[in-house]
Amino acid sequence: MAIWLPPLFIDRMQRLLGDEFDAFMKSYEAPKYAGIRVNTLKISNEQFRDISPFALRQIPWCDTGYYIQDDVKPGKHPYYYAGLYYIQEPSAMSPVEVLQVEPGDRVLDLCAAPGGKSTQIAAKLQGQGVLVTNDINSERTKALAKNIELYGVRNAVVLNESPERIANVLPHFFNKILIDAPCSGEGMFRKDEDMAKQWATHSVEKCMLMQRDILKVAASLLAPGGTIVYSTCTFSPEENEAMIAEFLDAHEEFHVMPIGGMGSFAPGRPDWLKQLQEEDPEFHFSKEAIEETAGCGRLWPHLIEGEGHFVTVLKHGGDRSEPSGYEFIEKHWKSNRADRTYVREEQKRKSGRPNKKEKHSGQRKDTAQEHLESYVGFAQQELDIDLPGITVTYGDHVYQTVIDPSLLQGLKVVRPGFYTGTVKNGRFMPSHPLAAALHPEEAKRVLELSSDHPEAIRYLKGETLQVDRDRILCKGNAEPKGYVLVCVDGYAMGWGKWLDGILKNEYPAGWRWMGA
Ligand SMILES: C[S@@+](CC[C@H](N)C(=O)[O-])C[C@H]1O[C@@H](n2cnc3c(N)ncnc32)[C@H](O)[C@@H]1O
């Protein structure tokens, strides 16, 4: 056998799988599958297939997902830095596919870090609607925010919260919710041997407690007629079918929308639930709930080309015409906003909360207003772009947001919206996420680099480049001097500032190309 597996896990799988066990064990000798998913916020699926530096083979359950050879390094190409694709394990692409996100949806990704599935949801939204992406682990939300920004997402809010606290402020707000639950990770042992070693610590029992709590709250976040997708990357029935049956018994208005037995999804295992119930008095499910779990979907490493996954679509039977929490909130927001701009005044001192003197003199409000004006001036002069939502300032930072900022008060907000830039000494400095989200036709000045030329990597390493005036493509009557959107083969990577034949590099230090 190629990798070490916990003996207790082997015993359990043998008992559960019976005749299938040998084929299952053989899958651990097969190589793991590598995948990338095209980021259609930046490039169409067809265009990417035309320019892909790697040989691509379609993943059956995801239109924009492709197997790549295990020996290529997709993280070492300028297209990765331009956010053209996300490197993702093939089976991990399935939960968002079955959530069936449409432009305009209000989607919550409750356990989102580092953001693979959030970037997939954002691509499906195509900039329309709302994505609230959350993780309870503050360290992991840093990677989540970075991925949202690298992939050019304009309509997301990033939170670092418990599901309960989100439900307190946004009850019944979302029409689609993804719970990619923390789990014991049994399906990832082939991909990541450390997961096998840590299996005892991330025990099935501990994970069940977290999953149960998260599922319990999710129902109060969903609008009538909405959909919850629950997924794990583990095999144990306790974390999968048992969680679903328990949820169904507690929420009679929900049903499983069957996917098991369709396409690549093997059916759920109601027989395993019956067995659990017989062996352990802690488990008790209704007959109906047990039967419904046949509609859950399982991806098995010995049946498909990918790792182990469990996916279930839970549909709320409520009438879609019933007003959702979102409709109440939206009405309140519309009646309370005079124009498209909003000044957030009661921020903490560090990020701009007014001190007593400012509050009474109105000085803080003036500063925020000035920041807004300097952003609007920049946008009018330098961009050709129409962003959804409203502009807000948090201290010196300017964001565009699609959610009423007053709703987020009291929550730990990592990004209140799309971070467009910072105002320093009265001047608006565009952010890197703004550049990453732009298409060349939305910027006044563009420099095109080629992925075949070393200049592209030199730019990504943070080097200053010598660039002749005639290489800066200017729109209308713009002059080459100023902020330039630096692109690779037509796709934005970041900013540079051009003056007299020199392009000052604005690519942020923490994002740069490392190594050769
Ligand atoms: C399987 S990972 C998510 C992977 C992510 N969906 C992706 O595709 O990149 C599970 C995540 O759940 C988070 N988590 C654990 N308990 C949570 C809770 N109660 N509320 C929200 N997130 C939680 C963990 O910090 C972890 O990042």
TrEMBL record:
<keyword id="KW-0489">Methyltransferase</keyword>
<keyword id="KW-0694">RNA-binding</keyword>
<dbReference type="Pfam" id="PF17126">
    <property type="entry name" value="RsmF_methylt_CI"/>
</dbReference>
<dbReference type="InterPro" id="IPR023267">
    <property type="entry name" value="RCMT"/>
</dbReference>
<dbReference type="InterPro" id="IPR029063">
    <property type="entry name" value="SAM-dependent_MTases_sf"/>
</dbReference>
<dbReference type="InterPro" id="IPR031341">
    <property type="entry name" value="Methyltr_RsmF_N"/>
</dbReference>
<dbReference type="Pfam" id="PF13636">
    <property type="entry name" value="Methyltranf_PUA"/>
</dbReference>
<keyword id="KW-0808">Transferase</keyword>
<feature type="compositionally biased region" description="Basic residues">
    <location>
        <begin position="350"/>
        <end position="359"/>
    </location>
</feature>
<dbReference type="InterPro" id="IPR049560">
    <property type="entry name" value="MeTrfase_RsmB-F_NOP2_cat"/>
</dbReference>
<dbReference type="InterPro" id="IPR011023">
    <property type="entry name" value="Nop2p"/>
</dbReference>
<feature type="active site" description="Nucleophile">
    <location>
        <position position="233"/>
    </location>
</feature>
<dbReference type="InterPro" id="IPR001678">
    <property type="entry name" value="MeTrfase_RsmB-F_NOP2_dom"/>
</dbReference>
<feature type="compositionally biased region" description="Basic and acidic residues">
    <location>
        <begin position="339"/>
        <end position="349"/>
    </location>
</feature>
<dbReference type="InterPro" id="IPR027391">
    <property type="entry name" value="Nol1_Nop2_Fmu_2"/>
</dbReference>
<dbReference type="InterPro" id="IPR031340">
    <property type="entry name" value="RsmF_methylt_CI"/>
</dbReference>
<dbReference type="Pfam" id="PF01189">
    <property type="entry name" value="Methyltr_RsmB-F"/>
</dbReference>
<feature type="binding site">
    <location>
        <position position="135"/>
    </location>
    <ligand>
        <name>S-adenosyl-L-methionine</name>
    </ligand>
</feature>
<keyword id="KW-0949">S-adenosyl-L-methionine</keyword>
<feature type="binding site">
    <location>
        <position position="180"/>
    </location>
    <ligand>
        <name>S-adenosyl-L-methionine</name>
    </ligand>
</feature>
<feature type="binding site">
    <location>
        <begin position="111"/>
        <end position="117"/>
    </location>
    <ligand>
        <name>S-adenosyl-L-methionine</name>
    </ligand>
</feature>
<dbReference type="GO" id="GO:0032259">
    <property type="term" value="P:methylation"/>
</dbReference>
<protein>
    <submittedName>
        <fullName>NOL1/NOP2/sun family putative RNA methylase</fullName>
    </submittedName>
</protein>
<feature type="domain" description="SAM-dependent MTase RsmB/NOP-type">
    <location>
        <begin position="24"/>
        <end position="317"/>
    </location>
</feature>
<feature type="region of interest" description="Disordered">
    <location>
        <begin position="339"/>
        <end position="368"/>
    </location>
</feature>
<dbReference type="Pfam" id="PF17125">
    <property type="entry name" value="Methyltr_RsmF_N"/>
</dbReference>
<comment type="similarity">
    <text>Belongs to the class I-like SAM-binding methyltransferase superfamily. RsmB/NOP family.</text>
</comment>
<keyword id="KW-0963">Cytoplasm</keyword>
<dbReference type="GO" id="GO:0008168">
    <property type="term" value="F:methyltransferase activity"/>
</dbReference>
